[in-house]
Amino acid sequence: MKIGVLALQGAYIEHMNKLEKLDIETKEIRYSRDLNDIDGIIIPGGESTSIGKLLIESNIKAKIYEVIKNGLPVWGTCAGMIILAKKIHDSNKTYIPLMDIEVVKNAYGRQLSSFTTNQKIKGLQNGFYPMVFIRAPYIKTTQNNVETLSIVDEKIVAAKQNKILVTSFHPELTDDLRMHQYFINMINNE
Ligand code: GLN
Asked: What is the ipTM of this complex?
């Protein structure tokens, strides 16, 4: 199995390090041609507006939309969740709008108010998980077959729709490998 990590901006190296700890081959995704031989892709946290601009400048946006639409498993973390949303609250921007969610950006305040909390995630081995939030978005509403996986302070922070997984928090910034394992299992259809 080989997992690509969108390497335009943000915390992509941290994701690659986690996957390598799980003996998964990784690949930095920067151009359309990089999308050919991967089994899944991670869109990392960072700054959604910058990632959005770079998707256009790198000429990769149409191809990445197409491969995910055609079923390539994807996991968006934090800014990556915003990138995949069909609707961004109070905005008419979208980036790779493939998931039936409406997200609210920067919902957890400024950088200073970033925090970690242990919360339950549905389907995760041993339940509780250390969630790191950094100016994180949350999911305001879901539609169709989106499955809610975790709720923190009455806000949806993890969800799944078919082969699209999103989390508001940053699993690449903890020592816990279970969320990366969850994505690998999802790719394996488990
Ligand atoms: N607030 C950022 C955005 O709007 C997301 C923050 C993050 O990825 N840590 O893109």
From this structure: 0.92
